[in-house]
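Progress against Task 2.4 (sequence-to-structure conversion) is shown through the following example record, which the project officer requested during the mid-term review.
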Amino acid sequence: MCDVRKKLILTNVVIEKYKTWQINEKGIDKDKVFDNFSTTLLMKLLYLSCLFSIKNTNAKTYRNTPFGTLDEWIALPNGPAEDGLYSAIGYQPMPTISYNLGKEDGYKYSEEINDKSHINKINRYYYDDVAEIKIEDNILEKLISDFDLSNARRDIEQGFDTLFNEIGNKIDTSTLEKSNRTIGYLSRLTHLFLWNAALYRDTRTLATDNIYLLNDELNELDGILVEAK
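Structure tokens generated for the chain above:
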């Protein structure tokens, strides 16, 4: 079971990619990027980014993919969710993201700007009370380096890019109605055979620790995308 701190770091990589894509490709104002963002959407983006990351690679084991870090996928009714990460959201400080459980879900993903208390929380969580991060630091870059996640970061970014090259024009979260429609569409892409096989098991665990089954899962996803074109 991978350190949940690494999972939070890798999750922020995808959140940052999503933010950049929204601003640069969709022309969304940076203050509105996360207006209809949700934990459900995040889990789907993470799962599909991990899955697409193995496309056109020769990985011999799941450990050499982002599934080696995000390694606790379970089947929930709305789709796959990374259990360690899902449990941590809202309770642990994220490198660049603020969580406030008293606000609507989307506000969990608003950025903290020049917030020393948030930096202190990150230092305590990642560095055992040693003040290693300053406000002016690039927090995410530092954590990726310190926790040796450069390869996982590269791979999940490539997976994210493939995801949005394939279906980016069908993802729109600019309004709540469009966000719900997007969740419905992504559900079709994530409710694949691993999710179906796990949904009614006692543990509900997806077999993402098997590179051969992951390739089969990717082939099923590719088939759905071909049919949809």
